[in-house]
Design brief:
By secondary structure, this protein is of the alpha+beta class. The chain contains 2 helices and 6 strands.
């Protein structure tokens, strides 16, 4: 009985992953986007487990340098990990109508682990049917 439940969940996850890849390949086109702005903020997070319960504690959003410093030096924040919230705004040419559009992506880490700068080109996926819809690659 337990094995059947695990198999159902595994098949569901595999099906979702397959559909996601199909959707990206059929409904989106890879285009280059010009980055207009980047907002990189951080928060600190700590997960504690007590038996079967799990508690997650987080801080407010703050500058990443300050978060790194606090987790190293301040006794209250030791044991916390620094998490990023990156918002990238960009302009791209829509494959739907050939017009320049703007959009944004939110990420928890930079693509390829390399910080991006305004003015750089970022490859994205733009919808073939909805002019404003984009996805990360």
């Amino acid at each position: 009985m337990r094995l059947a439940g695990i198999m159902i969940v595994a098949v569901g996850i595999a099906g979702f992953a397959a559909y996601d890849q199909y959707d990206k390949r059929v409904n989106f086109k890879r285009v280059d986007a010009r980055i207009s702005s980047i907002n990189d903020q951080c928060y600190m997070e700590k997960v504690t487990r007590e038996g079967v319960t799990k508690t997650t504690s987080t801080s407010d959003m703050l500058r990443c340098e300050l978060a790194e410093s606090l987790t190293r030096e301040h006794p209250k924040w030791q044991g916390y990990t620094v998490k990023h919230k990156i918002e990238i705004r960009f302009a791209f040419v829509s494959p739907v109508d050939g017009a320049t559009r703007t959009s944004k992506l939110e990420m928890s880490s930079f693509p390829n682990g390399r910080p991006l700068r305004a003015g750089e080109v970022l490859p994205i996926l733009a919808s073939k049917t909805k002019a404003d819809k984009t996805r990360a690659i």
